[in-house]
Amino acid sequence: MRNNEMPHAPGGPAVNKDDEALGSPFVKCLLRLIRTQDSFGLWEGHSDAELLAEFIITKQQQRAVPFGGDPDPDALWRLDMFYTAVALAIEERSGVSTSPTIEMKPVGASGGWAFCRDVHRFGFETFRKLAEAGTKLVDDATAAIEA
Asked: What percent of the chain has pLDDT above 90?
């Protein structure tokens, strides 16, 4: 890996930039979270769209991912970053301390991942769908807190 490459580089076709979705409060929170993990400054020259490109998984790419076996570390990273950003955004909006409660590990004697078989395919078709999914989770949680 060269010095300026992301450890979680996007593997699919170039994604269409969506400034409105990239500017949403949830996506900004996700980007802050991702950038805080760059302790060596390797991602400094990367745009927001480049950093989020790994979250974009087309239907064709999803179909190409086989079931079974351990999930790709990149899929687990996407899942962790997404739900950690949801927790951070809820905390920012509500003032209530939150944290994600997802712990991904194999279960059972076989070490299978049967309880979350689609974790291998975790991602979104567009930046807009990424923003909408995160925003909906944050909206629903903050509404429940306020109720």
From this structure: 41
- In this prediction the pTM is 0.78
pLDDT in tens, 39-82: 888 888 899 999 999 899 888 887 887 766 677 788 888 988 99
CA gap 108, 34 in Å, rounded: 32
User: Do residues 55 and 8 lie in contact, with contact meaning Cβ atoms separated by under 8 Å?
Assistant: no
Measured over all CA atoms, what is the biggest interatomic distance in the chain, rounded to whole angstroms? 50
Reading the block at residue 25, the tokens are 């409060």
For residue 127, give every residue at least 6 positions away whose Cβ sits within 8 Å of its Cβ, in sequence order, or none: 15, 16, 17, 18, 21, 22, 27, 49, 52, 56
Full 3-state SS string of the chain: CCCCCCCCCCCCCCCCCCHHHHCCHHHHHHHHHHHHCCCCCCCCCCCHHHHHHHHECCHHHHHHCCCCCCCCHHHHHHHHHHHHHHHHHHHHHHCCCCCCCCCCCCECCCCECHHHHHHHHCCECCHHHHHHHHHHHHHHHHHHHHC
Other Cβ atoms within 10 Å of 121 Cβ, number: 18
CA distance 33 to 144: 24
